[in-house]
Amino acid sequence: MHKENQPLVFELSKEGRVGYSLSELDVPEVELSSILPTEFIRQEEAELPELSELDIMRHYTALSRRNHGVDSGFYPLGSCTMKYNPKINESVARFPGFANIHPLQDEKTVQGALALMYDLQQQLVEITGMDEVTLQPAAGAHGEWTALRMIRAFHEANGDYQRTKVIVPDSAHGTNPASASVAGFNIVTVKSDENGLVDLEDLRKVVGSDTAALMLTNPNTLGLFEEHILEIAEIIHGVGGKVYYDGANLNAVMSKVRPGDMGFDCVHLNLHKTFTGPHGGGGPGSGPVGVKTDMIPFLPKPVLVKTADGYHFDGDRPQSIGRVKPYYGNFGINVRAYTYIRSMGPDGLKAVTENAVINANYMMRRLQPYYELPYDRHCKHEFVLSGSRQKKLGVRTLDIAKRLLDFGYHPPTTYFPLNVEEGLMIEPTETESKETLDAFCDAMIQIAKEAEETPEIVQEAPHTTVIKRLDETRAARHPVLRYVKPTETAEI
Amino acid sequence: MKHRYLPMTEQDQQEMLKVIGVSSVDELFADIPEKVRFKGEYHIKPAKSESALLKELTQLAKQNANSDEYISFLGAGVYDHYKPVIVDHVISRSEFYTAYTPYQPEISQGELQAIFEFQTMIAELTGMDLANSSMYDGGTALAEAGMLAAGQTRRKKILVSEAIHPISQDVVKTYAYGQSIDIVNVPLKDGVTDLEALNTLIDKETAAVMVQYPNFYGQIENVQAVSDAIHAVKGLSIVSANPLALAILTPPGKMGADITVGDAQPFGIPESFGGPHCGYFATTSKLMRKVPGRLVGETVDEEGRRGYVLTLQAREQHIRREKATSNICSNQALNALAASVAMTALGKKGVQEMAKQNILKTHYAKTAFEKAGFKVPFQGAHFNEIVVKVDGSVEAVNNTLFEKGIIGGFDLGKVSPELQGHILIAVTEQRTKEEIDALVQEMGALQHA
Ligand SMILES: Cc1ncc(COP(=O)(O)O)c(C=O)c1O
Fold first, then answer.
1. How far away, in angstroms, is B296 Cα from ligand 1 center?
2. Residue A170 to residue A172: CA distance in whole angstroms
3. Is the pLDDT of residue A489 over 70?
4. Rounded to an integer, what distance in angstroms lies between the CA atom of residue B168 and that of residue B77?
5. If you measure from the C-alpha of residue A145 to the centroid of ligand 1, how many angstroms do you get, rounded to a whole number?
């Protein structure tokens, strides 16, 4: 990676340079002031940069070299399923017939796009075991919130206005409680037991006639399968609540068990994780939601339907929660997910899960002698180690993560889930080879040794990156969230 | 199973299972209750080879009329604009698109700096103090602005102009219901928000007013008057703005807006059947700690070198959990990058030239329609859209245009009963004079037929 700082694009700007090519205006030029009242005419120009095309390309190329992606190297970021992003997906999403179509075009003129969406919905119905799927939500958290809004609508349609509580395990991802709160619910946290699973005793204590839903990911964020899932579902259904499946971890169970068969009433998927989105540096994603029959009336509008004369959007859904997103979801991401599913087929998706789970268990067993493994049982697609042993030596999980950067790896997810001290959450995915896993394990083992013998090497890491550890406290105390052009007085 | 994405060989698998200490893969799934275990394979289509799939999907894509092949006058929130070719080359660099949220700043400086630049460009265009690093889209960004305002003012009523995109209004309503916020519509007068009606609707319970700039009907709202009215009761002024228009229109930040949101789709982002686009969220320093989503801030490393990090994370769901005011996590980062590259390529002068072409070509179209005898009901200042009255049904007009290779405008009768027979025409810099003339002529021929 480049060591020198890359200037900001604004600092590279020089008055008079251009990086664009617009056609000449071919209609009569008239004074803006003759068609716009002066109070609407901007007085100060927006300070956007001025660069030539090559300088722009060099700038962003330099930035890209200061960035690590899956194509750069191993990226075992737990809970994020950083698998390979197939290149065919990128080509297909850019076909003019997919990229350059307008969402408000006459349905007759976009039947190919609608057919793809419909088929994707059908495939996701089969994969999740639900009865219907909407592609509208833009990401995982958006899907969670959509489903919770539907759960609320479902209860209210039954006259059940007292169901104000959503139960969330202490190991849940932060979006779960946040989505429930934005959907208007109060949150009740349920503890994990000594096996890292939902504590059934505790669950029985917190459920009641005010329970709207339980949110669960299975396998949970420790990578462990909630083996009492049928009992859990029974407890919630017994009091009239709904069971919600956070599909962030679906990579662990494809073709092995379906949320719909485990007793879940609704589910969101992260197409940017399990179905190769890609992750885009933090999005865009896609978070379809699947539901069982009794919740279909509440799906967001419009609903895509198939009739004898083709595909249509049906907006006549009186019980729908309404729209959750303009138009029909992140279509471009859905095209990529569809391409992926069609590239893998049924046997491929089964192999995906099996290989992902083998990879995770293999790494877990290789690393177990060197790091604390809080829950010693077969994991699914990911596992969580604790840096508690190293912490006693003065080396924190943060240090271990930073030291991994020196080996060219993106570190695992750290300090999550919250119920593991100094957590290191490792998700290799199925697209990584044994050689890659071995090399990463060797690095982790070396770091464990360093923690014992030369802890300062770990504590002072990273040593090879373009920049050292950054002062996050300063960033938060004195926020600088944008560039400001230095004024002449400031330069003096 | 041999597949190009799956490197595990038979031999690998044997060796790995041995280390794990199991004799079969199935043992790793033994904790799934037998009763619900899925047997066999999914009933989905069989896998296709790379070239066979490419062929099939090429055919499927061809069934869609696209704006490369058709001349499009359809806007209504999503536009066919000039996309500098360089944009796609930058976002195709896989160091960007195969990364995730920049949690590890030492190996994510590229993404972080690009976002910091995006935040700056959006703040510049909107005239606001700061901007976040993207929302899902303009509609959900507007809804989040409403929730922020309700939380900030502890009030539960929001006034929404009827000239806000009807689809965005729907999204706002869905979010508002979850938060028990009342949405009250402000009616229109001559295609813009009726300021008199607004003044009678505003009261001490009003958290915010939302207007769109330029509005759904292409008209330019008097944002300053709206801000003054809501500020009189200490509520917030929320503006949904087309960022391209802001290259030549007075920015909301100079007209009292407390929050400016919108979609950066006009900057290098394909229409893509409505998504993914790129919502943005810009506001004042005062509301900085209430902003939803990610913020990138500047700082220094241990050796004093300038660098960038995700900051003010105490606002966010992964720290605050149920106390978070927004649940957004993954956003539209790659499209924020695309928009940044487009804004950089267009630059300070290009955005103005492009915006100006939109306004002048739309003005030309308006004059041409009026000359041809069409009624243009709203005569206020416009950006790149106008409303035109046609005889008979818009659907019939659009069907005929389509046969001539033209994607016509949006049928306003679909969203407003009073506007039956009215069409919303968008004219971007992409449309030539000949194309505009052809549109007017074809529509004129229909009227006199
Ligand atoms: C377990 C879990 N749930 C939900 C989410 C939220 O998904 P998204 O970031 O797409 O909103 C994530 C991802 O970060 C996750 O790991």
1. 20
2. 6
3. no
4. 10
5. 12
Residues with Cβ < 8 Å from B235, sequence gap 6 or more? Answer: B149, B153, B155, B202, B206, B207, B208, B209
Residues of A in Cβ contact (< 8 Å) with B175: 182
Calpha distance A11→A31 (Å, rounded):
33
d(CA A171, CA A216): 9
Kindly state whether A157 is in contact with chain B, defined as any CB-CB distance less than 8 angstroms: no
CB contact under 8 A, B64 and A99: no
Shortest Cα distance from B440 to chain A (angstroms)? Answer: 14
Quick one: tokens of B210? 């939302």
B323-344 tens-digit pLDDT: 888 999 999 999 999 999 999 9
Look at B301 and A467 and tell me if their CB atoms are within 8 Å: yes
Residue A283, chain B, CB below 8 Å: the answer is yes
B42 touches chain A (CB under 8 A): yes
Query: Kind of pairing, strands B296-300 and B279-283?
Result: unpaired
Identify the burial level of A90 via C-beta atoms within 10 angstroms of its C-beta, where 0-12 means exposed, 13-18 middle and 19 or more buried: middle
The per-residue pLDDT for range A434-452, each reduced to its tens digit, is: 999 999 999 999 999 999 9
- Is the Cβ pair B110, A432 closer than 8 Å? no
Q: Which residues contact A42 (CB under 8 A, 6 or more apart)?
A: B246, B247, B248, B249, B250, B251
Question: Residues lining ligand 1, judged by CB closer than 6 Å?
Answer: A 79, 139-141, 173, 175, 217, 221, 246, 248, 270, 285, 287; B 329-330
**Candidate of B103, B134, B294, B329 to mutate for ligand 1, largest count of ligand atoms within 8 Å of Cβ:** B329
A183·B220 Cβ contact <8 A: no
Burial call B106-119: b when 16+ CB within 10 Å, e when fewer? bbbbbbbbbbbbbb
Q: Read off the DSSP letter of residue A192.
A: B
Q: Tell me whether strands B385-389 and B182-186 are parallel, antiparallel or unpaired.
A: unpaired
Chain A residues in contact with B57 (beta carbon < 8 A): 92, 95, 116, 339, 342
**What atom in ligand 1 is closest to the CA of residue A79?**
16
Structure tokens at B290: 């209430």
Q: Compute CA distances A280 → A413, B113, B336, whole Å.
A: 18, 15, 10
Q: What is the spatial distance between Cα B63 and Cα B69, in angstroms, rounded to a whole number?
A: 12
Closest CA to B284 of B131, B148, B142: B131
Separation CA B164–CA B185 (nearest Å) = 10
The reply to whether B199 touches chain A by the CB within 8 Å rule is no
Cα A77 to ligand 1 centre (Å): 12
Name the closest residue on chain B to residue A33, using Cα atoms.
B381
Position A492 scores a pLDDT of: 41
Residue B62 makes CB contacts below 8 A (sequence gap 6+) with: A97, A112
As a residue count, chain A comes to: 492
The Cα–Cα gap between A76 and A272 comes to 15
Separation CA A397–CA B148 (nearest Å): 35
Residue with tokens 């409505």: B274
pLDDT digits (tens, 9 = 90+) for B204-231: 999 999 999 999 999 999 999 999 999 9
Q: What is the ipTM of this complex?
A: 0.98
How many helices (H) does chain B have, and how many strands (E)?
13, 16
Q: What is the pLDDT of residues A129-139, one digit of tens each?
A: 999 999 999 99
Quick check: B44 contacting A, CB < 8 Å?
A: yes
Q: Please report, for residues A104, A173, B141, B152, B254, the alpha-carbon distance to residue B223 in angstroms, rounded to integers and kept in the order given.
A: 28, 40, 18, 21, 9
Distance CA B402, CA A110 (A): 13
Beta-bridge partner residues of A186: A165
Q: Would you call A186 helix, strand, or coil by DSSP?
A: strand
pTM for the model:
0.98
Helix (H, G, I), strand (E, B) or coil at B29: helix
